[in-house]
Amino acid sequence: MSGGSGMRIVVIGASAAGLKAAARARRLLPQADIVVFDAREFISYGACGLPFYLSGDLDNLDRLRETQWQAIRDAEFFARVKGLDVRCGRRATALDLATRTVTVESVDAGAAESVGYDRLVIATGAAPRLLGGITLGDAVTCFHVPEESQPLRRGLETGQIGSAVVIGGGFVGVEVAVALADMWGCAVTLLEAEDRLLPHLLDADMSRLVAAELARHDVVVKTGVPVAAAHTVGEGAEVTAGGETFAADRAVVALGVVPQIGFAAAAGLVLGASGALAVDEQLRTSDHAVFAAGDCVEVVHRLTRQPCYVPLGSLANRQGRVVGDNLAADAADAEAAQDRPADADPYSSFGAVVGSSCLKVFDLNVAATGLSETAAAHVGLSADAVWGTFHDVAHYYPEPGALYLKVVYERGSGRLLGLQAVGPGEAVKRVDVFASLLQRDGKLRDLLDLEFCYAPPYNAALDPLHGLGCAALNREEAGVIGVGPFVAADGRAVIDVRSADEAAARPWGSPEALHIPSEQLRARLSEIPTDRPLLIVCEKGPRSAELARWLLAQERRDVVYLAGGMALRSQAGSG
Ligand SMILES: Cc1cc2nc3c(=O)[nH]c(=O)nc-3n(C[C@H](O)[C@H](O)[C@H](O)COP(=O)(O)OP(=O)(O)OC[C@H]3O[C@@H](n4cnc5c(N)ncnc54)[C@H](O)[C@@H]3O)c2cc1C
Predict the structure, then answer these.
(1) pTM metric for this prediction
(2) Ligand 1 geometric centre to CA of 125 (Å)
């Protein structure tokens, strides 16, 4: 291999991972020969911003590839500002690991060239997942690249698109549904094969909050309806799902993504169980001279220790830097390590992930990290959960935002497994903080040790995560059990301990609850039925939890409380 000054680095893919790797390598190896190929002309844009272009929040697509000082990130920008040779319209089609050459074809002319490398970086991203019965066409499109979002935006602006079916209720599908309906008033039907929206983020209970928010904005949500077919018919689209046919001006396919690794797989690079490229902690593939990063690789999940596929821009960017470091570390001459202390390990590693993600659904912030209860069960972990309803700031501060949270933890050990946060309030902060606990194998008690900033405009004196830690420890150590927010009475006597006004505003429903306000319950113990188990209900959970604990101390067995209270329940449209 050549030394750092003569090292030849070839990068395939000029987006988050590839360009980060190339730019970092350039900084560490000023003399290296670095060339980046991309099949497309429109490079280095934030795909995550496409829904906001569709919604009309952004006036044009160039906003997605502008720097903060309004320079357009095209090949010329990278040459001028980053010292990188970026060649657009060039697709890598074959790889020979033995001779360290990659074949690159011009997309327009079809002319091929063979490019040698000392180190290769594969950062080819992902492609939309499709199903057999779906035929892409004029009225049936994916939503993965600008070329797909532009005609949709034009159709909305000109009034040609007044209705749409979105196929897939993952985060892109939900974002697209919001974008279509919010500004443009498009009549949207959102179809999801699983029993709930956002199945990779949320359990069914928390997902109900998202479905209710979409319904409040007139998006028709249908879950449990696998799509069998979608075609362009005349000027519009026809989608068959769950035995029904849906006709609309457009159908948008958002069924997730699959790693885009054709030439790399054909060359014999090892794939992981997920079908993405397998890489080690240095993000090196099965061939020592080939690194890979971004949506084309699989990563290790911190909680399951298993490989998994988590295609996120947040990870792709971090991985790009790790690859850049390791390209430099591989270079033979000393200039590679010029900005490192002499005794430091020159190699960087990309650790396990917990899969934090978030999205905005009309007025709701939705965020999750780690494992849901469903995901924990799927990998054989025995999990329990606690729910809570909170405000994101002091409750007396003007316009507090509600937050509905669910913590999932391992039964017995109390190891934290995941957090789901939904609400108009500041959900992402809690999820980010929780995620850092997951990275340290945090346990329930660690929630009580968290130190948050506090002033009334920003938080209550005790953060919601503290409250949920207490609720979980009360469950584990004192048997004070909160049941999920959407349970039925199931033969239990329901004791509603709210004020008369609260109970009237959000009644429990049927069968009718016995109403005894919390401040009277101790005095009216004799009125509480003794022939049935009890479900104590209040507005958000704390009052009923406290009274459940008191009843347990009165030798009452079979007492549970409604976790998250009637506020959480009614937020999802349940009485
Ligand atoms: C609508 C949408 C919304 C999203 N929202 C979020 C979000 O909110 N948060 C988040 O974390 N992530 C989000 N993502 C995901 C995020 O955009 C990706 O994780 C990220 O772009 C991955 O970066 P990458 O560099 O690995 O791949 P990509 O960005 O996909 O880039 C791969 C590049 O490789 C090129 N290429 C592929 N094959 C070849 C070849 N054979 N030869 C030459 N060039 C090739 C492609 O043209 C492309 O430019 C969103 C994605 C979409 C589509």
Answers:
(1) 0.95
(2) 5
